[in-house]
Amino acid sequence: MSVFRDLFWFFRQEKKAYITGILLLVIVAFLETIPPKVIGILVDHMKNGTMTKEVLIRWMVALAAIAGALYVLRYVWRICIFGSAVKLARQLRNELYAHFTKMAPSFYQRKRIGDLMAHATNDLQAIQQTAGSGILTLVDSLTLGGVVLATMAFSISWKLTLISLLPLPVMAIATSRYGTMLHRRFLTAQEAFSALNDKVQESMSGVRVIKAFGYEEKDVEAFRRQSEDVVAKNIAVAKVDALFDPTIGLLVGLSFFLSVAFGSQMVIAGELTIGELVSFTTYLGLLIWPMLAFGWLFNIVERGRASYDRVRALLAEDDEIKEMPGALAVPPQGSIEYDIRRFVYPGETKPALVDVRFRLERGATLGVVGKTGSGKTTLLRLLLREFDNYDGDIRFDNHDIRHYTLSALRMAIGYVPQDHFLFSASVRDNIAFAKPEANEKEIVKAAKLADIHDDILQFPDGYETVIGERGVSLSGGQKQRLSIARALLMEPELLILDDALSAVDAKTEERILTTLKRERRGKTTIIAAHRLSAVEHADWILVLDGGRVIQAGTHEDLMAEDGWYREMYRRQQLEELME
Amino acid sequence: MNEQILTSKEQRRILWRLLAYMGRYKKEAVLAFALLLLATAGELAGPYLVKVFIDDYLMPNHLAPGPVAALAVAYIGVLVGKTIVGYFQLIGFQRLALYIIQALRMDVFSKVHRLGMSYFDRTPGGSIVSRVTNDTEAIKDMFISVLAVFVQNGLFVIGVYIAMFSLNAQLALFCLFIIPAIGLIMKTYRRYSSVFYQQMRERLSELNAKLNESLQGMAIIQAFRQQHRLYQEFAAVNEAHYEAGMKNIRLDGLLLRPALDVVYLLSIMAVLSFFGISALESPVEIGVLYAFVNYLERFFEPVTQMMMRLSLYQQAIVSASRVFALLDHDEEAPFNPEQAPYTIERGEIEFRDVSFSYDGKRDVLKRLSFTIRPGQTVAFVGHTGSGKSSIINLLMRFYEFDRGDILLDGRSIRDYSRAELRRCFGLVLQDPFLFYGTVKENIRMYNEQLSDEEIETAARLVQADAFIQQLPGGYDHLLAERGATLSSGQRQLLSFARTIAAKPKILVLDEATAHIDTETEEAIQTALTQMRKGRTMIAIAHRLSTIQDADQIFVLHRGEIVERGTHQQLLAQKGLYYQMYLLQNGLVDAHA
């Protein structure tokens, strides 16, 4: 129940809704005890022959009024309590999202997106249930149960109440025991189901092999066996699941039996009227729900507790990239200087960069080349301050980049990542991503610079064409050029192209690079690439291998050396020849 | 798939098609329904017995010990009987539902295996898996919790009315007003809830899509400093989701339990008024009143249950429509007879003017002709898109070719039985497919006749024995995660062993040497030489080093053979092959 204490901040925040809701629930509980009472009174009138028109009308009017009141009150408390619970989910979801936007890449390396999604959906749902149904069940089973019991005991007969309630504790114990059993079997069935899922997955990824060997029928047989296992385990679940209703029915039936058996003796002994007995049994019916609800409550609360703990732990994750107090808020402009002794990715032991030192003047173009995994992307990610924990420093405009605010630093950088990520939105919104207020002219200009304008005009709705899962799919080259346009729209001081031209053909690449050179005069550019033609015209080229600089110089310098660069360059030229 | 496009007529058709599955389990269905009838009768008998007790014994103040004891015994007997029958009835329905889903799953899975390779190349594996497991699971939920509840409760409602009519027809008639009242509430609820619920689901999937996209693109969002803007966008979707949630709460509040409770109280009022008015003139049977109140009390809970499950039903119908769409898919694999008298003896392959197109527009193979003699090793080389993989797709009957013919031992490939073709061809793919199981099981696959000895012989032949012996447990080593602990070369050796163990006459290697690490390269080379002995072999290769000693090499370019000959002949031609060879060996001319 401690989860209620943890959620108290929210109950306080929504105190009006919760106080109203709980108050109404209590009133509803009291009102609910009246109709059975009325039944009893009228039965006694009928039996004693004291029934009059006035009596009947009076009570019917009372019942109608109660029905109306109950309807309204029940509606209102639902809005109050369930409405607040939905509000809680909304609030936590927003908080989570805001928190996610603050998390550094290392966080995303540690966590899987699927898990994060699960926290934001399933866990929030469980918490919502706790704040909604949880509160309802708690209040309702306590008040309704309490009020009904009190009415039965004090206004009818405490003796009969005790006797008739004898089977009910058995019910509570039995259902909670079934619950544990069910849970265990359910897990087994769940496992069987996920094994079946894996089996199908396996068959689908191996479908070529299965077909090549002609094992289709045998695979269907194997599937049948596993599927039958799922059925068997689900039947085991059903065998426990089916215990609930009959057990409850049996014990409630016994309760009724006891109340009628002993109650009728009391009627004959004159301790009870027949009307009271009828009321009594009706009350008994009202008690079933609170009894069952109590069992449920533990379930809901337990799940809510676990979920809330997970969400809290997530919200407590620290953002690793911190801004210094009094950090520079002006975007840097000027030379870039790397002096990195060593950088190791968090959680790894092998350094990703070792002794990388160079200076890049404002307006110059730097090329970074090397094999996959040589450290090209790492070099760029440090500049974006995706990681701060390296040995050494990077200076931009003569200040350590860690002395700028994140926003100021990133305002100076237009970044085109290797995995061109685009949003499922219109082409226009994607290009104007960093500057949503950009006008038509700016957008078209950026698109033209990135050599994607003509392609866009071919799309069904031009710049309004929606791309991504729900829209048209683009080729790799088109995606890359769109990401370039997105970065160019910012007119950044520093443009970073991380293997951003790999999917476009050589001619387009050449065209884009020439345009960039012309348009970005005086501004700095860093190009990391596999294809050496992309860096050929750079002012300085670094060749990385295993995180170290193995060669450096201009294209001419490097071609004169007998090394990786020259060999690679020749090989790539030939490849191009053969295309 | 858009969930809204299902008209109510389509929904009904889908429901009937699902229900038709019950026909396969007539015995179980009849038993479940029979038990349900008994259980319902038992459920209704209780209040009736109490009524008899009140009216015949309690009211006249005449508690005759004998008959009262008999009544008590009857009551307890009925109670216990009802409990037992009820238990088996519940299991019966669940069992029926599970059997139906099992049948449905088998249908879908078998259907999937009959589909042609073109279907798999176009459809993401994940969505097929969803059809077979998740969608059928949603249907199961419906069978268990919706259909069973509907049938049980529907029957109960009828039973209550029968009981009430037999007690007091006039009053029961009076109580009939409940039916249209509930019907009206249900209809209204369904009308709005299907819309609201749908809205809520859409908002939710929008919310999830937004979140998922943001998480994936977080690096970009941060690099371009758009955190605040995207937070605003997310908050807006979140707000819309909240609004949709509130709408559902309001609807549930207006029409679900609170509304049904009003109807309940109205029905109680009707009963009380009826008895009250008659009591003005003559004494009434209190027991009958008791029974009515009691029946009515039990009447409403099931109705609420039914209404709360309407949304589950909607979901199941959508899932079922997807499952049936797959079952009705007609893109079946190329046809071969189940039985045919012909066998492949020599292993000669001839392509005669074969043309083929994936999309019906652009030919990827253009009037291709070549012959491979028995026992020869032949290699196809060429760039991506040159058509070399298509040759294998046709030869393995993954796709149907359009024009020309493929002859095996001089007879059309279409004349052989499927089993004969599978027996003669052995295929090794670029990505060796390993599944969760031991090394032995991975080599044997479904070929149960294969002895352990044969497996080890095959492994030795392909040079896999050495590393298998090194594994903990050797041949019984469990390959977790599809062999992720092995190197790519070792995985490929295992798939070689699997293919060789099946003793094919014709060996087909589809880029089988593409991802080979230096450690296993030598073993692979030796393995290939061993495997070729006494077999026709066709290899598609990227690495020319693996095919240098082929008897014939075909260089493909845009669906046509542009060069053919042995390695030496092709080098002498100084054409495309020559250039590729230079490139791969780093023997670059100085002038380049």
Secondary structure blueprint with pairings:
The complex is a heterodimer of chains A (579) and B (592).
Chain A: H1 2-6, H2 8-13, H3 15-32, H4 34-48, H5 53-102, H6 105-110, H7 113-156, H8 158-165, H9 167-205, H10 207-213, H11 216-241, H12 244-268, H13 274-315, E1 336-343, E2 353-360, E3 365-370, H14 376-383, E4 391-396, E5 399-400, H15 406-411, E6 413-416, H16 427-431, H17 440-449, H18 453-458, H19 476-488, E7 494-498, H20 506-519, E8 524-529, E9 540-545, E10 548-553, H21 555-560, H22 564-578
Chain B: H1 8-20, H2 26-58, H3 65-114, H4 117-122, H5 125-167, H6 169-175, H7 178-216, H8 218-223, H9 227-255, H10 257-281, H11 286-308, H12 310-327, E1 349-357, E2 363-372, E3 377-381, H13 388-395, E4 403-408, E5 411-412, H14 418-424, E6 425-428, E7 437-438, H15 439-444, H16 452-461, H17 465-470, E8 478-479, H18 488-501, E9 506-510, H19 518-532, E10 536-540, E11 552-557, E12 560-565, H20 567-573, H21 576-584
Parallel strand pairs in B: 3-10, 3-11, 6-9, 9-10
Antiparallel strand pairs in B: 1-2, 1-4, 4-5, 7-8, 11-12
Note the main attributes of this structure.
heterodimer, A: alpha/beta, ABC transporter transmembrane region fold, Rossmann fold, 4 domains, 4-stranded antiparallel β-sheet, elongated, B: 592 residues, alpha/beta, 21 helices
